[in-house]
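Worked problem 6 (solution included).
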Amino acid sequence: MSVLKLRLYQETVSYTKPFAFKVGETYPLPPYSTVLGLLHRVLQAKEYHKMAISIQGTYGSKFEDYRTTYFYKKKDVTTMPINIHHLYDVELVIHVDANKELLEILYKKLQSPCEFYSLGRREDLVQIREVKWVGLKKTDDLITTANDMYIPTQMIENEDHPNFQQIKYQLNTRYHLVGEQRVWDRVEAWYVSEGTFLDIDTCVIDEDGDIVFFHLAYNPAS
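Solution. The predicted structure is:
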């Protein structure tokens, strides 16, 4: 089975957490909804396309700055400086699985982008450094993560291990409109740091040796 592998780079970015009103905290990696949004923008999609994605990466450091935020209450407008957290020197590895026709369209559009894309906020520009096809295979070798990554909780078995001290997130994936309100589907996932031993029987890796954990438990290309 072949999937798309993307290598992306961002000099600075804030993947701001929802409902972070007083402090603009950032996720350490882009949530699934953010990456799916980028891919749908590349496709110029008018409707949702089913995809499975795997997200991993690293960043060099964190820093903070301030942004003026406007609050509207009836006819009154007030402002407040909000502390925004940023990541610096971000490198991402994204795997994408979908039906082959969709992947081929995505591959062509990523090879010749028609605009400058962002990932996170609109001002968080992203460089597409590599797009290629890779094969996947299962391995029963001992696995240690080479990057920080998201792993859906149902795919990991060693969360009670004393050395497995990671962060659990409820990450948005896609939304449905209920009236005029967006209602999000979510995936519960571990944020697993680089160098973590994974106590699992089998794992999926690509031909470069990078681990792959898709956010969907099935293969939409099958």
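Discussion: The chain has a mean pLDDT of 88.
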